[in-house]
């Protein structure tokens, strides 16, 4: 029985080559800065993204936390985020809990962008003790809750100019940054050039078992290193897991476009049916979202997950009532072909 698990790209498992690299990794004490594999990972990440320094962390949530607290060094600082962003919705308000940071949200558009003219109305134009001090604008590329969408280069350029105008920094939650490159038609360095700090996850589509990378300027990374230690992110012989993250960055990133191709194939299949609500043009990366009109989504998901047609297709319902499917390294080949045929068959029977 084949299984096509499309619930999330967090379900990826390390490849055999990754496991071998992990088993043979050279290690040291990373808290002392002496783990050679971690150091190599950080050097590679900084070079790939065009930043001065990089920091390896257990997760991208911790990476975002460290980036924001490293930027908002003064308690009572203020940041601006999209209202559907991962930072706003799924990180427990950690920057407020631990850093006294005020988080103000701006409504996200369908491509993950937001209205900079509206954002400007939230800026305090004077340094007055009544107001928090604005420090950063946070953006998300690709945007999870907007279906893996990718904002345009024009908008990214405007964000950079806006931040420069108001003396703000830009933090990019780039957990799925590599998934965005195909849609934008640019390389990693250019994408990261729009932000002062960037978080990258290695354990989603890049298939490492654990780990996030934060890249930025040397002074910010120095501060983030202190924050990482304070929140329990200091690791000792971390080269064992860093070896997988290094392979993820340097090798797995080169195949990630395949996930977008498979996502678009699924979008084309479900778009054939007039009772399926989907905007194929908004499938920018490895995530597909759609709704069924006049039919039970729960029943459809259950039937996808049964053992008929020789394949179990695992999908789920996410916020907003969307059915979501996410492609990744473990969702490819024959399983994808069989899964798409099953989905098309089930939808045909629902007419």
Summarize this structure as a short list of keywords or feature phrases:
globular; Aspartate Aminotransferase, domain 2; 13 strands; 2 domains; four-stranded antiparallel beta sheet; single chain; 351 residues; seven-stranded mixed beta sheet; alpha/beta; Aspartate Aminotransferase, domain 1
Q: What this model shows, in words?
A:
The model has no long low-confidence stretch (mean pLDDT 96). The chain has two domains: 2-9 and 255-349, Aspartate Aminotransferase, domain 1; 14-254, Aspartate Aminotransferase, domain 2 (3-Layer(aba) Sandwich). The protein has a seven-stranded mixed beta sheet with strand order 2-8-7-6-5-3-4, with helices on both faces. It has a four-stranded antiparallel beta sheet with strand order 9-10-13-12, with helices on one face. The chain is built from 14 helices and 13 strands. The protein is 40% helix and 18% strand. Strand 12 (316-318) and strand 13 form a beta hairpin. With 351 residues, the chain is an alpha/beta fold. It has helices spanning 16-24, 36-49, 60-71, 86-89, 94-99, 116-122, 153-165, 177-184, 188-192, 218-230, 239-250, 257-270, 297-304, 334-349, and strands at residues 2-5, 53-57, 77-82, 102-106, 133-140, 169-173, 197-201, 212-216, 276-277, 287-292, 311-314, 316-318, 322-326. The protein is globular and about 65 Å long. Keywords: Lyase, Pyridoxal phosphate. Residues 5-290 form the Aromatic amino acid beta-eliminating lyase/threonine aldolase domain. The modification N6-(pyridoxal phosphate)lysine is found at residue 204. Its cofactor is pyridoxal 5'-phosphate. It holds the Pfam family Beta_elim_lyase.
């Amino acid at each position: 029985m084949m299984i096509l698990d499309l619930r999330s790209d967090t379900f990826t498992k390390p490849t055999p080559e990754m496991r071998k690299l992990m088993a043979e990794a050279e290690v040291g004490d990373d808290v002392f800065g002496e783990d050679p594999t971690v150091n190599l990972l950080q050097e590679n990440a900084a070079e790939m993204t065009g930043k001065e320094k990089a920091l390896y962390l257990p997760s991208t949530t911790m990476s975002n936390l460290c980036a924001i607290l490293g930027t908002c060094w003064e308690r009572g600082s203020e940041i601006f985020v999209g209202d559907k962003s991962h930072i706003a919705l799924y990180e427990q308000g950690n920057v407020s809990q631990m850093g006294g940071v005020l988080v103000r949200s701006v409504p996200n558009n369908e491509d993950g962008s937001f209205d900079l003219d509206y954002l400007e109305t939230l800026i305090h134009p004077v340094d007055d003790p009544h107001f928090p001090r604005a420090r950063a604008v946070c953006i998300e590329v690709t945007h999870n809750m907007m279906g893996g969408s990718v904002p345009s280069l024009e908008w990214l350029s405007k964000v950079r100019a806006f931040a420069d105008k108001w003396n703000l920094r830009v933090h990019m939650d780039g957990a799925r940054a590599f998934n965005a490159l195909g849609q934008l038609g640019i390389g990693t360095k250019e994408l990261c050039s729009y932000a002062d700090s960037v978080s990258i996850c290695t354990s989603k589509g890049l298939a490492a078992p654990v780990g996030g990378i934060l890249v930025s300027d040397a002074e910010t990374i120095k501060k983030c290193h202190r924050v990482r230690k304070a929140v329990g992110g200091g690791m000792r012989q971390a080269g064992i897991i860093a070896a997988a993250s290094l392979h993820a960055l340097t090798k797995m990133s080169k195949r990630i476009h395949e996930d977008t191709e498979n996502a678009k194939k699924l979008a084309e299949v479900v778009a054939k049916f007039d009772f399926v609500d989907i905007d194929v043009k908004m499938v920018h990366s490895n995530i597909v979202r759609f709704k069924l009109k006049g039919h039970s989504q729960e029943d459809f998901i259950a039937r996808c997950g049964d053992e008929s047609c020789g394949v179990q297709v695992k999908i789920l319902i996410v916020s907003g009532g969307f059915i979501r499917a996410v492609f990744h390294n473990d969702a490819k080949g024959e399983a994808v072909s069989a899964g798409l045929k099953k989905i098309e068959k089930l939808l045909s029977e629902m007419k």
